[in-house]
Write a structure and sequence with these properties.
Number of helices: 6
Helix content: 25-40%
């Protein structure tokens, strides 16, 4: 379940205003919210790696609802989905034409329709390894064991008209081939939107606002870390110090 951006914003304003320490307008709050959400999202990967080592050392609590490694992985589930890629004849590779920004590629399935049809798990390698493997007669990729490499498009692709992630798969078949990849997408930028009231006040607009896409358990982390940045903006070292200490304590409790 997502975190309400209005709840977070009102809490941040309440804490700041309680001690008359300043005010964060919506535009600045939205920038801070996007930054903090991104930082929390990126923290899942080193944290998950650290917690996985505890699993390997048999020091992880494996009880239901108390396995921290599984909890971290659970927080990434909303950003994981299977995506169909379309072959681009200009760039000679596969690109994703849907919505959202891809952060990581997972399992790649290359489908070669025919008799028989192959749904082949495709290994993703570096450009250097791709060059070596495809040049050797002993390791030349086949429809049963295809190979993939990623790069950036060299020309702009409609409708986004920006360079995109390009996936090249060998062997390539002009007809009857499709590519599906389990992808991890970055969170959508949150945004607190408003209409203007009769007195010039900001009124929350639930219809155009965008909530945080992080798990509801991250609400406290969002508030604390936004307050930390807010203290920098309004030049209040006390807020920065208190929020930083609270953030550190929360992180320590989660990892201990």
């Amino acid at each position: 379940m997502a975190v309400s951006i209005n709840t977070v914003y009102q809490t941040v304003l309440y804490i700041l205003n309680k001690e008359q320490r300043g005010y964060i307008p919506p535009a600045e709050f939205n920038s801070l919210a996007t930054q903090v959400q991104s930082e929390i999202f990126m923290s899942y990967f080193p944290d998950g790696n650290q917690l996985n080592r505890q699993n390997q050392n048999n020091t992880q609590n494996d009880s239901e609802f108390f396995n921290m490694f599984k909890d971290t992985a659970y927080k990434l589930y909303p950003f994981e989905r299977n995506a169909s890629f379309t072959y681009n004849t200009v760039n000679l590779g596969w690109t994703y034409q849907g919505t959202g920004v891809i952060y990581k590629l997972g399992n790649i399935i290359s489908t070669y329709s025919g008799n028989p049809t192959y749904n082949s798990i495709t290994e993703l390698v570096s450009q250097s390894d791709f060059n070596k493997i495809t040049r050797s007669k002993l390791t030349t990729p086949t429809v049963q064991y295809p190979l993939a490499v990623t790069t950036q498009t060299t020309t702009l692709i409609a409708p986004s008209l920006v360079q995109q992630l390009l996936v090249k798969v060998t062997p390539f078949v002009a007809t009857g081939m499709s590519l599906n990849i389990n992808c991890l997408f970055t969170p959508t930028s949150p945004s607190w939107e408003f209409t203007t009231g009769n007195l010039g006040q900001y009124l929350y607009d639930v219809n155009t606002s965008v909530d945080f896409e992080l798990d509801v358990s991250e609400k406290n982390n969002l508030i604390i870390n936004i307050l930390k940045y807010a203290g920098v903006i309004i030049n209040d070292p006390a807020i920065v110090q208190i929020a930083s200490q609270e953030a550190q304590q929360t992180s320590t409790n989660e990892k201990s």
